[in-house]
Design brief:
- The chain is of the alpha+beta class.
- The protein has a single domain (28-395), classed as 3-Layer(aba) Sandwich (Beta-lactamase), CATH 3.40.710.10.
- Helices cover 28% and strands 17% of the residues.
- It has 12 helices and 14 strands.
- It has helices spanning 43-53, 101-113, 123-126, 139-144, 156-164, 172-177, 196-210, 214-223, 275-278, 284-296, 303-306, 378-395; strands at 28-31, 61-68, 71-81, 86-87, 93-95, 247-248, 263-264, 281-283, 312-313, 323-326, 331-335, 338-347, 350-356, 362-368.
- A hairpin with a 4-residue loop joins β10 and β11 (331-335).
- α2 packs parallel to α7 and α2 (101-113) crosses α8.
- The longest helix has 18 residues, at 378-395.
Length: 407
Amino acid sequence: MHLPQRITRLGAVALLLAGAGALTACGSSSSLGGSSQPPLAGESQLRAAMTALSENGGPPGVMTIVQQGSQVYELAEGKADISTGQVMSASATTRIASVSKPFSGAVLLSLAAQGKLVLSSTLAQALPSSPPAWGKATLAQVLQHTSGLPDYIKSPKFLKEFIANPKMERTPQQLVGYVANKPLDFKPGSQYGYSDTDNIVAGLVAERVLSKPYSEILKDLVTAPMKLSNTSLPSTTALPSGFIHGYDVNPPSIPEGTPAPPEDVSELINPGLAWASGGMISTANDLNTFIRGFVSGKLFNPQVLTDPAGFVPGAGGPPGPGTNSSGLSIYRYETACGTVFGHTGNMPGYTAFVGSTADGSNSVVVVVNSQITPKGNDAVFNRLLAVENQAICSANGQAGPSGSPSS
């Protein structure tokens, strides 16, 4: 889910402005999975980037996982809960926003691998209840964001109702209904256009194929097989004990440039308003397991995800590191330290990035507890990209973009 920047508490969209009161991180920590582990390439650079991110309008906390083969490195900076002093942890629950999208992709791709649907099927065939004007878009185009489906989150009616009540309840069909009378934004397959409606439709297709709720399908096809015990699609705003609190670091009610404590927005929004597109919760540990397995083929033939012919230029919300291109529910990030496949996500209070090499051997997860986008604060966003880029370098055994290996 990627809401427009700056919706205030009970009256506005997105929650990010630069400026006011920098939070000083309370020291970084690292659990490297065992004292016998070799040193992490570029660890000092990664720590420095995380510290820089958490300062001057950055998030209260940053959690990064880097994995090389069987070696797992966890680095934490700052606080998961500024009221209690709880530190960031890879085992704490966080909202993952649009990182939910590869999960809905995993569902459809698993069903395709099982022969229960065909990705070349049109919406007219796979979801007859969808608007007739959308009928020629295929399931593959839905997953790639080349379908042309209009984005319900940009609907003026949705935004008005959401501003009035961020906890309002809407069914997936009602979410689609906000734009059901709209034509396609472009001819299917002719261009790229990021749309949260795509993944709502993907979830509805899965429900039609298996005749059960999407949350159960998600468990049956993805989270249970991959043993993701702390990953789910909640139906309420409540979060499990010990969760990572999400913050607006410059509350809209405070004049810009005026120091103010971050505002806790962890339970501001009903996750059902993002559903299969961005409503999931998980942990950094589970996300690391998921992206490694998803990309490397634990659920289906991985070639369907990483075939170079399956990508078109396009970035998610927010963009990820390096050069971004869009595949089937996943992005390819070509960076100075190598290529990874993954996804980004953000919503009020949270931003996340996951990435893995094609063989699943090296992976990264970055979780922060504020919403960071280039439209909110370019400087903070660039510092986020610096963390993501350095994490990729470290995962690939490089001290930095120069390609020098760890000593």
